[in-house]
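ESCALATION

Customer reports they have been waiting on this structure for their group meeting. Please prioritize. Original submission:
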Amino acid sequence: MTATVEHSSGSSKAGHIPKDSELAAQVSEGRRRRRYQILRSLMRHKLALFGMVVIVFMIALGASAPLLTEHDPTEIDIVKRLKAPGWQDDEGLVHLLGTDTLGRDVWSRLIYGARISLLVGITAVLIAGSLGVILGLISGYFGGTVDDVIMRVADTQLAFPFILLAISIIAVLGPGLLKVIAVLGFSGWVQYGRIVRGQVISLREQEFVQSARAVGVKNRRILLRHVLPNTWAAVIVIASFSVASTILAESSLSFLGLGVPPDVPTWGGMLAEGREYLELAPWLATFPGLAIALTVFGINVVGDWLRDYLDPRLSGSES
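Update from on-call: job pushed to the front of the queue and completed.
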């Protein structure tokens, strides 16, 4: 009787089905371990950690711009034009980074310009990434005529340099913040589409996809639940580098007078205004140039770390 009881108890324990609360606890524990692994990997990569600090600092700078300056970035006062950094006016207000050719405070324009540059960079990448991933999934999974049409459109767009295409479109549409975001977003989908397409072509022949087809799972569910998650690593890495290139593109357009309106402070616009005063007032171009360089550097090194971390061949060394 004792042996029977022990055997029954052991069988019951071996065949135990986890409850919902136990499954939730396991999922929560897995997420905690994953976050710990990411944090440990980031802490080991000192350059990426520095880049992350730079990105967070720039975002915080732009978000809290009204709290960090007493000056209106668009207020013109010719009497105060071209004052050196640290100059104090008659009202006792200090111009930390000096003033520009129209007497506007450079510090306030710099931190308000961070808003525009980061907004354009992140929003345009979201548009380009979403469009590119969708078209890449469709092109790679269905193939045939659909694939040919999408790839020929991509090849046609690649025939034009990215910045030249953006300049041509904005020259026709006219400058404006929303137009710049739209042009940069819809012009940048090709790299996402081609990378995702290549991955989907190999994934659609895998056993788990073929099994899902065999049991009658719809194509939409296969794409969203089985194929798409396996492309996220590449998409995230591309997006991280694209934010930096998009910020540079927006700065280039603003530098050429084809970006946002002149009265809106942007880093590229500040560079354009300061290029003629490099000897007389070098701070006009120096500070926005440093802001662009530092932000792009931070995003690039974080993107480099993400590429290494998400690479399956290196996952063993990062875990």
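Sent to customer with the following note: The radius of gyration is 26 Å.
Escalation resolved.
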